[in-house]
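Full entry
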Amino acid sequence: MFLAMVGACAGSTGGGLKVVRFLILARASLRGIRQFARPRAIHTVRVDGRPLEESMVAGIIGYCGLWLLTFIGGTLALGAMNIDLVTAGTATLTCLNNIGPGLALVGPTENFAFLPDLGKALLSIFMIVGRLEFYAVVVLFVPGFWRR
């Protein structure tokens, strides 16, 4: 399931964290450790030998945090509907990432028909959010976006 979470490549239609975001998140984490060890040194996150702007790194870290909070919230929401956590977690993961089957009751030989209507609606929203990318959907609810 971890590979399904980060397996999509940049520019693909798969949702989720994507390989490049996970790579940048890992490098930013390592930079944080280096920064702790040598606080006066200038450390940059590089991809293909080129340094990334700090705003881009911060945006990716924010995206990953938003994705993680949505995943945890969706899993807990489905768990509150009396769905076991393996099924709830993998159902949320498959819908956020648009990747196919999960595990347990949403595994490859099962389907989502047993879910309550509220659960299906929640997972449908996750599929849309995962497909369109989080920031594109979240910005629709920011009042400043509509004032311009």
Remarks:
- The beta strands are 46-47, 50-51.
